[in-house]
Amino acid sequence: MVTNIRFCTIMFSFFVLLAILPSSSCSIPRKLALVKPIPIVLKNHKGELLKGNVTVNILWYGNFTPSQRAIVVDFLKSLSPKGRGSPPPPSVASWWSTTQKYLGSPSTITVGKQILLNYPLGKSLNDSHIEALTSKFSQVNTVNVLLTASDVAVEDFCMSRCGTHGWTRGKRGKKYAYAWVGNPANQCPGECAWPFHQPIVGPQTPPLVAPNGDVGIDGSVISLATVLAGTVTNPFDNGYFQGPKIAPLEAVTACTGIFGSGAFPGYPGTVLVDKTSGASYNARGLNGREYLLPAMWDPKTSLCKPLV
Ligand SMILES: *[C@@H]1O[C@H](CO)[C@@H](O)[C@H](O)[C@H]1NC(C)=O
Ligand SMILES: *[C@@H]1O[C@H](CO)[C@@H](O)[C@H](O)[C@H]1NC(C)=O
């Protein structure tokens, strides 16, 4: 296996933004919203994208309850729902449909294999481990997604990233995409499960109620949505991104921290609230699910477009 060394990561760019603001002034985030944002343009580097039928295999590394797995699987199945029972917008499918504007034709996601792994490489993983685990079931137009349980430490998890996507080259030179997302429940909910948990730095807006009642897994869904959108629009480092290859802004990382209209650093924006559960969401999914999904950059308007 020849491998690349670069990983697209979900950086805490919005925390970085907070860090450079003078901490003495509470009004600054609001003022920021009045300043015309610098338009973001993700350059199309014209490389191969993941279109057509794309299979997502899930590798569950460590302990996940059946209800936790169902939250994630229902999210993935809601991206490209087949036939009846598809919820009306704003939905997971309407969120995913923005990727079609990059691809020119849809990327239709199907959930493939699910593999349960009982800590075969222990509880402390690095990038080599992620690659070794995800390269086992490589196939063309397949994304192997590794999800690590809340008791698994992963290199740079919670330091600079909540998840990542990358690619490897197989024996015959074919390229395979993969992704990893960690459950931040015990390690850094304030970073990787924001806005369902108080942020560790910056303005302390009250946390939102997680739509599926699981702060860690609902946070993982945000990261999974982010890395999947990055994977199909920039699978092999030569698709849509802005900035250096090693730390690019991609479809969703270009819009970090935005979930609804009126968002500003530290405030996720106005989203929908479920009258029964009090949970915050902006996307309906299959099986009556609700999810909170990050804004995606729209190549037609060059704007970060939240669902609500
Ligand atoms: C995707 O799969 C469906 C059936 O599962 C098939 O009808 C369709 O032609 C496939 N699309 C592409 C682009 O291969
Ligand atoms: C990951 O850890 C293994 C030992 O567990 C080590 O051999 C390998 O070089 C490490 N890889 C990276 C990228 O740090």
From TrEMBL:
It holds the Pfam family Phi_1. Its main location: secreted. InterPro entries: EXORDIUM-like. Keywords: Apoplast, Secreted, Signal. One of its GO terms (cellular component) is apoplast. It is found in: Secreted, Extracellular space, Apoplast. It comes from the Eukaryota. The keyword Secreted applies. Transmembrane segments: none annotated. Belongs to the EXORDIUM family. This is Protein EXORDIUM-like 2. It comes from Cinchona calisaya.
